[in-house]
């Protein structure tokens, strides 16, 4: 098991279909869109100056949208994960 | 439903008419103007060092003016949204 | 009505005469000078870490001098405004 | 009257003689020297996080030395002033 | 013995096999992957403004994943170590 | 008299002999060395967020070593001074 | 005697043997290694916002490893020293 540290969150990214059935890449727009993922694990949070932790506002199983290009890729037991800071998570999809 | 995190605010942008009836683009000035949107959802706020939250000063339904180019575009269930930080919202149109 | 957020201040800029009667531009000096405006509305202030607000030190009707090039232009109901942060206001003309 | 805001200080700059009687410029050294001015007005100070103000350490009438190139030039009723932050004032000449 | 200071952590890096049996380098992707190491020693932590320490969230013996290129290499008694800040440790492998 | 403001310190610099008796410049190394000076006056200190001052840790008369190139040169009544921030003073020579 | 200020530490650097008996330079790797030194004196520490000092975590006589290229060189009574900030010290060699 991977246990992210600080305000990091472990994500399993949902690869969006970028090709049509015939294999063509269909760019929707030139502007980058954020990506969707599922929260696999979350750290204890960032230590505040008053001694408390700012616990990440997401829970395991949440489907989230995060800033593209944020974070570090980790391959663990054959699965690829992404570790991002909780501040790079834009929204929860409920 | 999309639930923005932190001091983020989910906006539905009002596309301004940029073309005349005949299809000509009429640039008003070279300087960029901010854009108008309606608040669809707002996060819990930014965690302050004293443990409180700086709740976004906008409410769902507010018509707002925000810094152009701020934020991330999200497409959700066929609608395009923009997620900006509340500090990128310039004013409420009352 | 426009209600600026945070420590933003809504200004109506006094366009200085830059041309003589005959239409010639008379640059006074190469160094940029700040500009004059009247305060139309002011936000609630910036939230401090102790939970208080740093209320803008200007009031509606104040004639102010502000850093040139600061802020965002807004056109609202046919009038052009400028929204600046209160820290971009240099002085009140009394 | 001009009332500077925040930790700004309104200065009237003493133009140093840069030419000799015959009109020659006599550069003393390649390294920039700070300049001298008299304090005309001072703001209320910078708001600290504990709610107090860091009042500028200069008083009206003080002759001060300030960092060259700091601040904004203001022309008001025929007189040229310079508005600098109090942190750009190096020393009081007593 | 080496005793890391502040929020530094002493790591012994596990060199990943980068070659196949036949000696060919098999780059998996162009994007950099983080690396794995074992915690050999940890500092007392970073001093917070309230006088407490933010103790590193790792213990001696933990297998960790850290940001590639972070830290300083140290050779001590024939062994190579890496000293990284605890904020450069992404996750613990449990 | 010059009274430095904030955490500034007024120094009178000891020009090091850079030439031999025969007038040759003898550079010791390509790496810059700090310089020596005597403290002539010290400001009240930097205002901390808790309302106290961080008084400069030097006293009038101290011989100090400071970071070369730090500070502003001031010429006052025929003497050249250097005003540096107290954080640019490296050590006291006792 | 030299008394370092703030969170500075006075080091006497141990020059590593970079040449073999025959005089050849033997570079171990292209990546820079930190260097070893002995603590000669330590400042009072950095003043925290709560009025306390963050005392350097090293004592006179400690053998330390520090970030190469950090600090300022000082020559005093024929001996060369290096003054670094305590945050540039990586580890104590015990």
Automatic annotation (TrEMBL), chains A, B, C, D, E, F, G:
The record's principal subcellular location, in a coarse class, is: cytoplasm
Q: This protein's superkingdom?
A: Bacteria
Pfam families linked to this entry: Cpn10
> What Gene Ontology terms describe what this protein does at the molecular function level?
ATP binding; metal ion binding; protein folding chaperone; protein-folding chaperone binding; unfolded protein binding
- Indicate yes or no for the key word tRNA processing: no
By its UniProt entry, which InterPro entries does this protein fall under? Chaperonin_GroES (IPR020818), Chaperonin_GroES_sf (IPR037124), Chaprnonin_Cpn10_CS (IPR018369), GroES-like_sf (IPR011032)
Family membership: Belongs to the GroES chaperonin family.
The free-text function statement in the UniProt record for this protein reads:
Together with the chaperonin GroEL, plays an essential role in assisting protein folding. The GroEL-GroES system forms a nano-cage that allows encapsulation of the non-native substrate proteins and provides a physical environment optimized to promote and accelerate protein folding. GroES binds to the apical surface of the GroEL ring, thereby capping the opening of the GroEL channel.
Q: Which PANTHER family match?
A: 10 KDA HEAT SHOCK PROTEIN, CO-CHAPERONIN GROES
Oligomer status and interactors: Heptamer of 7 subunits arranged in a ring. Interacts with the chaperonin GroEL.
> What is this protein's record name?
Co-chaperonin GroES
The beginning of the lineage is: Bacteria, Bacillati, Bacillota, Bacilli, Lactobacillales
């Amino acid at each position: 098991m991977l246990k992210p540290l600080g305000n990091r969150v472990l994500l399993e990214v949902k690869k969006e279909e970028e090709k049509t059935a015939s294999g063509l890449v269909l760019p929707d727009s030139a502007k980058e869109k954020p990506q969707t993922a599922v929260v696999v694990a979350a750290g204890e949070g960032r230590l505040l100056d008053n001694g408390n932790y700012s616990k990440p506002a997401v829970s395991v199983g949440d489907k989230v949208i995060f800033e593209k290009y944020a974070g570090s890729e980790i391959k663990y037991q054959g699965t690829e994960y992404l570790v991002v800071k909780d501040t790079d998570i834009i929204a929860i999809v409920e």
